Amino acid sequence: MSTSKKQILVDPLSKNNPVVVLMLGICSALAVTAQVKPALVMGISVTVVLAFSNVIISLLRNTIPNRIRIIVQLVVVAALVIIVEQVLKAFAYDVWGQLSVFIGLIITNCILMGRLEAFALGNTPFDSFLDGIGNGLGYTAILLIVAIVREFLGSGSLMGYAIIPSSFYEGGYMNNGLMILPPMALIVVGCIIWVHRSIDKDLQE
Amino acid sequence: METFNIFIKSIFVDNMIFAYFLGMCSYLAVSKTVKTSVGLGIAVTFVLVVTLPINYLLDTYVLKAGALSWLSPELAGTDLSFLSFILFIAIIASMVQIVEMVVEKFTPALYSQLGIFLPLIAVNCAILGGSLFMQQRSFDNIGQATVFGLGSGIGWLLAIVGIAAIREHMSYSKVPKPLRGLGITFIITGLMGIAFMGFMGIKF
Predict the structure, then answer these.
(1) Selected residues 113-132 of chain B with any CB under 8 Å from a CB in chain A
(2) How far is CA B174 from CA A167, A186, A193, B171, B185, in A?
(3) With bands split at pLDDT 50, 70 and 90, how would you rate the model's confidence at B165?
(4) Nearest Cα residue to B135 out of B50, B41, B44, B54
(5) Sequential pLDDT tens for chain A (205 residues)
(6) Which of A27, B14, B109, B156 has a 20 to 30 A CA-CA distance from B127?
(7) CB under 8 Å to A66, separation ≥6 — which residues?
(8) What are the extents of the domains in chain A?
(9) How far apart are CA B168 and CA A62, in angstroms?
(10) Distance CA B189, CA A142 (A)
(11) Which of the 8 DSSP states describes residue B173?
């Protein structure tokens, strides 16, 4: 694989991370991070939708009239999201119930529109596919970090398995219930941005 | 009374930003000054109030399980709800177009203020989120759906004007370098969210 292709794939993981650097796709992301499992499923769903919608729009990029491209993009994305939703409903019903409306909100996830506009409309299908996978993974990584912090501190478990031994609880340890509440997701992301920008000084404002 | 409850609840308790993080992208990008954030907030409220009743009718008479029985009794068994994403987003995108044209024709002053934001609203999660929550909560009538839209929009407006005012003042304070801009905005939004949780359980 050539360096430019590798760059397309690896860049979004940290330097151009869609969530903490480009400020995209925060909308439907944070609400699903109280536990690791829904966050992982959400990340995978977004990665799949992003990769395939990038490929489809990239294939169509010379035939879509410029004026109606937003509608075309929305239709392509909405169709893919419906497929993902039906698959989840069939094979992972409990997670589907937990994610509820947030699967539908993948359609308006800014990462999708952002990458379709900024990348897929001007690049070849294979590059667009790599870009979609890279951005999806960058998004999943942030979701997972937030979810791991929140589930570990908030419920003392990971993926639903108890991590903190029961002897701790007998000794008086208590889970931090605040971590489960929605506002903490924002604060955890704020801290991730803090750490990320302390390491990568180029990103500071 | 029930309708009034929905109104208060959708502004304070189930606030789009603080409880569900919907519309965060434009919330973070456009909240640098109070003036523009008021414009965007009004535009979002307006589009929510217009799209929610339409999507409510669509859901009740076309999409729900058995909703088509008014056409002919044979269709009572059809369930088209899997189509709701694509139809809702189509309604929203076309309504945004129409609203944009109407505003441009009749109130050019408002149009020049909202201009850039209006087309962006089609992909604002808060709008689609409003429709999906409406579908999930199954309101009794179209009035409740409209009030829910109005309340959610006002809640969103409150949140974005609040953060814009705080950010305007923050430009005078010494924030640690890596936190400047995006980082501190997230943390403040979190703190505002905790404050808004104080409204939980309000009932009339």
Answers:
(1) 119, 122-125, 127-129, 132
(2) 44, 21, 17, 8, 14
(3) very high
(4) B54
(5) 677 778 777 777 777 787 777 777 777 667 788 888 888 988 999 999 999 999 999 998 888 887 777 788 888 888 999 899 889 889 888 888 888 778 888 887 778 888 888 888 888 888 899 989 998 998 898 889 989 998 888 888 887 788 778 888 888 788 888 888 888 888 888 888 888 888 887 777 6
(6) B109
(7) none
(8) 29-199
(9) 43
(10) 18
(11) S
Please determine, for residue B113, whether its predicted confidence score (pLDDT) is greater than 70: no
Instruction: Report the residue from B25, B85, B180 with minimal CB separation from A110.
Output: B25
pLDDT 10s digits, B10-22: 888 888 888 888 8
Other Cβ atoms less than 10 A from the Cβ of B92: the count is 28
Within A100-181, where are the H helices? 101-104, 110-118, 125-155, 166-170
CA of B153 to nearest chain A CA: how many angstroms apart?
16
| For residue B154, pLDDT beyond 90 | yes
Rounded CA separation B156/B16 (Å): 6
DSSP B53: H
Q: Which residues of B touch A27 (CB under 8 A)?
A: 21-25, 125
B22 CB within 8 Å of a chain A CB: yes
As for how many domains chain B has, the answer is: 1
Angstrom CA distances, B9 to A158, B24, B76, B79, stand at: 33, 20, 34, 30
φ/ψ region of B60 (left if φ > 0, alpha if ψ in -120 to 50, else beta) reads alpha
- The candidate with the shortest Cα–Cα distance to A139, out of A42, A72, A71, is A42
Alpha helices by DSSP H, B122-181: 125-137, 142-170
Tell whether the model's pLDDT for residue B204 goes beyond 70.
Answer: no
Residue A86 has which token pair?
A: 């039906």
> What sign results for the dihedral spanned by CA atoms B119, B88, A27, B45?
positive
**pTM assigned to the model:** 0.84
What number of CA atoms fall less than 13 Å from residue A103's CA on the CB side?
A: 28
Phi, psi dihedral angles at A158 (to 5 degrees): -135, 130
Q: Which of A27, A82, A198 is opposite residue B24, by nearest beta carbon?
A: A27
Give residues with Cβ within 8 angstroms of B200, minimum separation 6: B13
Please choose, from the candidates B39, B21, B10, the residue with its C-alpha nearest in 3D space to the C-alpha of residue B164: B39
Per-residue pLDDT tens digits for B117-130: 677 777 778 888 88
